[in-house]
Write a structure and sequence with these properties.
Helices cover 42% and strands 14% of the residues. By secondary structure, the protein is an alpha/beta fold. It binds pyridoxal-5'-phosphate. The site of pyridoxal-5'-phosphate (PLP) has 12 residues, from helix 6. Pyridoxal-5'-phosphate binds next to helix 6.
Length: 399
């Protein structure tokens, strides 16, 4: 243990930044502004023409949320108090019974599942995932909804039961069934659609959860699915809402949200202990949500359309290049550009074009597979569409 005397001695060896600088304030603003941390570290930053991808750090928070981060980082509060109040405020804003801030949508899935399993029995929260004595052990989902996020469900100790038809689902439900889970983005890919899924869950008295992680816009989705009857609904905080990348929302019935919190920090001996959300993230999540709700969503949409058109026109001005603008049905529901060409005649493949955009100055991240170069503009700063348009045209012509 560090003795106070040693601590003071250590502090004494830290260079003083300025005679008037308060002890805990850290470097002054101007010193921070002059440091280019990512450059110092040799980490590349880029124009995000890809979208809300976790590997690309997804989204940038609005100024109000960044200010809230600074505000919260300067004072202590009790973690549970802050979660209680922020949760209540979010529930009010999103017209649901209850809400809590989690460490991302994946964490919302784990904590929500844990809550359904344990109810308000904190002994059971200590039991999972290794000792399922006295607990239900299965979560049912449609096969077409299994896209790689089900580990978040299995973290609680349950196993997954896959079904395809309505009849499969009815047959699979048993006294082991803890929950029915739905992937909103694949609503149209499964045989059972959202409303029917809820009806079946209700008829059997089994809680159901909807993973809507990437499903704003439209903004109405933030209340549509709790109102539809899903007991729990999850959103990523750092995708369309532009909150902290490591935060998320768990919305729904009060009994399940309260139960989910039994597995969340500060409670230690639980599956959720490694899913801490700090006070800065909790506050920023609320502020980012407020900012998102107050935006002019029609104006945002028009801007994205304009930006995508602008890039599309530039790309299509190159002979042999075809562009297509589409809007995905559910997740990432924003104007999206697909650029295709014959690799032989242009002498460059989409993968090579993506690489060249990445290695250029400024660096630009795009997505797509071997067949196309894909772009969205909703995670760009305004004006960057001009740079992206110009660079794509250059890359397609100068090969
Ligand atoms: C992004 C995503 C998640 C994970 O969200 P995080 O907020 O990064 O934890 C879960 N489910 C779906 C469908 C997603 O798109």
């Amino acid at each position: 243990m560090i003795k106070r005397r040693d601590l003071l001695r250590t502090l004494g060896t830290i260079p003083v930044l300025g005679a008037a600088a308060p002890l805990a304030a850290g470097p002054s603003k101007s010193q921070v502004a002059t440091r280019d941390y990512f450059k110092e570290l040799g980490v590349r930053s880029y124009i995000n023409a890809a979208g809300t991808y976790t590997a690309l750090t997804a989204s940038l928070m609005p100024q109000e949320a960044r200010d809230a981060w600074n505000y919260a980082s300067n004072q202590y509060v009790a973690l549970d108090d802050l979660q209680d109040r922020v949760g209540a405020r979010i529930a009010e804003l999103l017209q649901c019974e209850a809400a809590t801030v989690t460490a991302g949508a994946a964490s919302a899935i784990t904590l929500g599942t844990a809550g359904v399993l344990t109810g308000l029995d904190s002994k059971k929260a200590v039991q999972i995932p290794n000792d399922m004595t006295g607990l239900k052990t299965e979560v049912i989902l449609q096969k077409s909804h299994r896209v790689g996020y089900d580990h978040a469900i299995r973290n609680t100790g349950v196993s997954i039961v896959e079904v395809e038809s309505r009849q499969d689902l009815e047959n699979a439900i048993s006294d082991k069934t803890a929950m029915l889970w739905f992937l909103n983005a694949h609503n149209f890919k499964g045989q059972i659609r959202d409303e029917e899924f809820v009806r079946i869950a209700k008829r059997h008295g089994i809680p159901c959860m909807n993973d809507c992680a990437a499903d704003v816009p439209p903004v109405e989705n933030l209340w549509k699915y709790t109102k539809m009857g899903f007991d729990l609904v999850c959103f990523s905080g750092g995708k369309g809402i532009r909150g902290p990348q490591s935060a998320g929302l768990l919305l729904g019935k009060k009994e399940y949200i309260e139960a989910a919190r039994l597995s969340a920090p500060p409670r230690g001996n639980t599956v959720g202990r490694g899913m801490k959300v700090n006070k800065e993230e909790i506050l920023c999540m609320l502020v980012a949500l407020e900012v998102y709700l107050s935006r002019d969503h029609d104006a945002d949409w028009k801007l994205w359309e304009y930006q995508v058109d602008h890039i599309s026109d530039a790309a299509a001005s190159v002979a042999g290049v075809e562009t297509e603008i589409h809007v995905p049905d559910v997740a990432n529901h924003v104007p999206s550009l697909r650029i295709r060409w014959n690799s032989d005649s242009l002498g460059i493949t989409p993968n090579e074009a993506r690489q060249r955009l990445r290695e250029g100055h400024p660096s630009i991240e795009t997505v797509g597979g071997a067949e196309s170069l894909d772009v969205t503009t909703w995670m760009m700063n305004e004006g960057e569409e001009r740079i992206v348009a110009q660079r794509i045209k250059e890359v397609l012509t100068q090969s």
